[in-house]
Write a structure and sequence with these properties.
heterodimer, A: 3 helices, flat, B: Rossmann fold, four-stranded antiparallel β-sheet, 7 strands
Amino acid sequence: MTFANALIALALVLGVTGGLYGVAHLVRLGSTGVGMRPFLSGHDPAEHALSRFHVRWYALTMIFLAFDMEMVFMYPWALVVAEKGTSAVVEMFVFLAILMAGVVYAWREGALRWT
Amino acid sequence: MDLRGWLSRRLPVRPLVVPVPGGTASRLAAERTCRTRGWYSAASPAEANLLVVAGATDGALEAAVERVWQSMPAPRARAAIARAEHAEGQLDAAEATLRDTFRQRRQATETVHPGPEPEMAGRGEDRDGLMLDQLTVPLGPVLPEWPAGLVLHTTVQGDVIQDARVELLGLGQVSGGTPWWPYGGGTPRRGLAARHLDTCASLLTLAGAGRAAITARRLRDDVLLGRPAAELTGPLRRWSAGVRRSWPLRWLLSGLGPVDDDLAPPPHLAGDVLARLRRFATAAEEALADLDEDGALPGRSGDESGDAQWTIETLPRLLAGSELAAARLLVASLDPDIEALTGREVRP
C-alpha cells in the first residue's frame, strides 16, 4: 500500500514538472538566452562578479564555530548533568577550557582587532 | 490553438525610456504617450519589453543603448524617437512589433556572444583601512530617472562609493538650447513649473512614491500642453501639499545627500534631498500661481548651464563616502540639465 502511494506521488511530481516544462515550451519565443551580462547602465562589467572577502572573516567564522559547538553540546549536557554528577561537570568544563584556549589564541593573534 | 498569439495580445507593455541630450522634447512626448496608454515604466532591461530611445544617439551612447538592447529578453521591441511629433507613430509601430509573434520568434533566435570573462576585482584599503575588493560600477547613461548623457564612473567598496568620475556623452549631437531653457513650450513660468515637476517626478519615483510621481508627470504634461492655470492650481496645490507633508518621504530623504554651504551651491540646490524636493514642489506651485507675470522665476537661478556646471564639478566630492543607493537620489534631486552645457567651454 505504501509502495503504491509512493508511486502515485512520483507520478504526480513527474506530471506536474513535465507539465510546467511543456507549458514553458508552448509559450516561449526562443531558446533561453546565454551569455547575458549584468545590467550596468549600458556598460560591460569591468570585473568578475565573484567577490573575495578579507581573510579575517574566516578566522572570525572559526571563533563563531567554537562558541556554537559549546552551545550544541551544552543543551543535552544540561539535561543529564544532575544524574551524572561531578564527572559530567568536570568533563564539560575541560571541554569549554579547550575551546576557550582556541578563542584566546585567536584573540591574541588579532582576529578580533577591527582597525 | 495559438497560445503565443493569445498571450502576445494581452502582454503588458513595459517601456524603458533612454534619455539622450538634445532629446528632452522627445522624452516628454514619449513619457506622455506611455502614461496615457497606461504603460508602466520598467526599472531594468530584464523587466522591459520596449526600449524607447528619446533623441539621436551616436558613439559611446549608441554602444550603451545597443548593449542594453542585447540584454533584453524576448518579446522585445525598440522605438527611436528623433522628433517629439513622431512619438505616437513610433510607439504604435513598436507595440505592433512587440505583439507580432512571428517577428518575435524570428529575432529571439539571435544569440548573444559574450566576450571573455572579466578579471577579478582589484583591492584597496577602504576608509577603515580594511583591504576590500574595488568594483567599478558605472551609473548612466541608460538608467531610469537619470539625467540624459551623464555617466558616473564610481569605484565601490561594499556599498560605499570611494571615488566618482564624471563623463558626459552625446553632447556632440546637441545643437544648443533645451526645452527648459529659455523655458520653451509656452510662457517661461509654465516651462519652469514643468521642469520642477519633472525633477520631482524622477525623485519621487526613485523614492518609491509611485502615485505622487505619476501625478507629478500628469501635471507636468498638462502644464506643457497649455491647460488653463485655473484648472491646474487645485490639483497642483493638493499634490504639492501631499509631497511636503508626507511622513514616509521625510523619514526616507531627510539628511540624505547634504550639500554644505562651503561648496557654494546655487541657492535652490542647497540642503539635503528632502529640502530640495520640498523646494521644487513649492516652486512649481508658485510658478503656476502667476503665469503671465515676467518677474523673477521662483526656485531656479535662471542659469541652467551654470547650475549644471556646478553640479558636475561638485558631484565627485558629494558622492565620495556616500552609499550607492543614495547616489541616484542625490543626482535626481540635483537634476543637472546636461543639454544646457553645450554652449560652455569648461566641462570635466
